Amino acid sequence: MYDLREELSATLTEIRAAGLYKTERQLTTAQSVHAATASGPVLNFCANNYLGLADHPTVVAAAKYALDTWGFGMASVRFICGTQTLHTQLEKHLSEFLGTEDTILFSSCFDANGGLFEVLFDERDAIISDALNHASLIDGIRLSKASRFRYRNADLADLEVQLKAASDSRRRVIVTDGVFSMDGSFAPLPGICDLAEAYGALVLVDDSHAVGFIGEHGRGTPELFGVANRVDILTGTLGKALGGASGGYVSGPAEVIALLRQRSRPYLFSNSVAPAVVAGSLEALDLVSSSAGARHQLAANAALFRELMAGAGFDLPPGSHPIVPVMFPGPDGARLASEVAERMLAEGVYVIAFSYPVVPQGKARIRVQLSAAHSEADVRACVRAFVGARDAVA
Q1: Is the overall model pTM greater than 0.85, yes or no?
Q2: Residue 37 burial by CB count (10 A; 0-12/13-18/19+): exposed, middle or buried?
Q3: Considering the domain 57-290 in this protein, what is its CATH number?
Q4: Tell me, what's the pLDDT at 231?
Q5: In terms of C-beta density within 10 A (0-12 exposed, 13-18 middle, 19 or more buried), how is residue 57 classed?
Q6: Which of 45, 49, 238, 251 has its CB surrounded by the most CB atoms within 10 Å?
Q7: Where do you find CATH 3.90.1150.10 in the chain?
Q8: Is pLDDT above 80 for 394?
Q9: Which residues pair with 365 in a beta bridge?
Q10: Residue 41, preceding peptide bond in cis (omega within 30° of 0)
């Protein structure tokens, strides 16, 4: 008899031997910059909680009120009986915030990206994708029958080569993350839009690591680079800066959104986002729209961390995003990064090390993510922990 368990056990052993096994540490508190694990309290520097809204009292209060008013779950998909006033309100407010015609909610941005491409693009079309795009974009593109072209990360010259190669296609779309999550680097959107216009292509941006806190009003990378009216389709998440719970969206032309409502499989066959999540996300969006204080604090925290870490001799790629990779290059980098992260956790600072194949060979790193909720003392404590751990394993 075929022994599936034995075969899978061998695969798991291989994953462990390669140093790729992902251990899930349990928080024993709410998600917060001051959290706790089973081993004790920690300063959390590895969450996507950019604006500190995951445990913000007004966001939590809105979600609690929604439980009493709107119930626990929808128990249905949108076109049957899974749409409440809350859902349409959030879609409307997201469209107003992003400056788009319409928005459609999904249970996650992974589902939004997974349900987008096969609806809009077929074998007559071409999708030109950045090499470092998120897995959800890659998987969504694979579901489409369109021709696929890949260009080197943020390389406009190579992008132009791929656009020329796709010149015979009916529709061409350039697909990119607004911010590349392992590097904290921005896509060169002005140049991408220039090439799109020159070659008659659409531009699609997944702005999950920017929406809510990048740009003058927090509207993301298109606002930052002044190209909001030149980006055709936006996708994004409610699971990072906008409350940190769950849910994603596609935002753009009314006709695009209308067709997705008719044909996007994750939308048609998945339950609606829970009412409490929608209500909390609405409150988070209101907080983002009404005040720039948290965005300014986040930028200040990221700048301070970068300054202190560079002064302490750490290897940081240039940038300004609150994702800050602390690099451990070379053949021994993966081990060093892992040991530094473990020592820091023992000292009460929670960070995560990444190595090949999650990142390229020889480019191991600890990815630090700053939050507006971190105090200056928190940031300085993180830097001290880095210094102490580095010196201990060197």
Answers
A1: yes
A2: middle
A3: 3.40.640.10
A4: 98
A5: exposed
A6: 238
A7: 23-52+292-393
A8: no
A9: 327, 354
A10: no
> How many residues make up the chain in this entry?
394
Angle, helix 376-393 to helix 293-311, in steps of 10 degrees: 30
What sign for the dihedral angle of Cα 375, 381, 385, 387?
Answer: positive
Give the CB-side neighbour count of residue 298, counting CA atoms within 13 A: 31
Which amino acids are annotated catalytic? 181, 209, 240
Residues of each domain in the chain carrying CATH 3.40.640.10: 57-290
**H helical segments located in 167-251:** 189-199, 221-224
Q: Rounded to whole angstroms, how far apart are CA atoms 166 and 126?
A: 6
What are the residues facing 216 on neighbouring strands?
Answer: none
How many beta carbons lie within 10 A of that of residue 268, not counting itself?
15
Spell out the SS3 assignment of 256-313: HHHHHHHHCHHHHHCCCCCHHHHHHHHHHHHHHHHCCHHHHHHHHHHHHHHHHHHHCC
Q: Which of 205, 210, 140, 209 is nearest to 176 (CA)?
A: 205
| CA–CA separation, 46 and 269 (whole Å) | 32
pLDDT value for 1: 59
Cβ atoms of 359 and 365 within 8 Å: the answer is yes
Q: Do the beta carbons of residue 251 and residue 91 sit within 8 Å?
A: no
- Beta carbons of 272 and 77 less than 8 angstroms apart: yes
The average pLDDT across 294-308 equals 98
Q: Which amino acid is at 94?
A: L
For residue 117 the two structure tokens come to 């491409």
Answer whether 175's CB lies under 8 Å from 142's CB: no
pLDDT at 155 over 80: yes
Q: Contact, 125 vs 149, CB < 8 A?
A: no
DSSP state letters, 320-387? -SSEEEEEEESTTHHHHHHHHHHHHHHTTEE-EEE-TTTS-TTEEEEEEE--TT--HHHHHHHHHHHH
As assigned by CATH, the class of the 23-52+292-393 domain is: alpha beta
What is the rounded CA–CA span in Å between residue 133 and residue 151? 10
CA distances from 290 to 35, 57, 141, 295 (A): 27, 16, 36, 11
What is the mean predicted confidence (pLDDT) over 241-256? 97
Residues sharing a CB contact under 8 Å with residue 293, sequence separation 6 or more, in sequence order: none
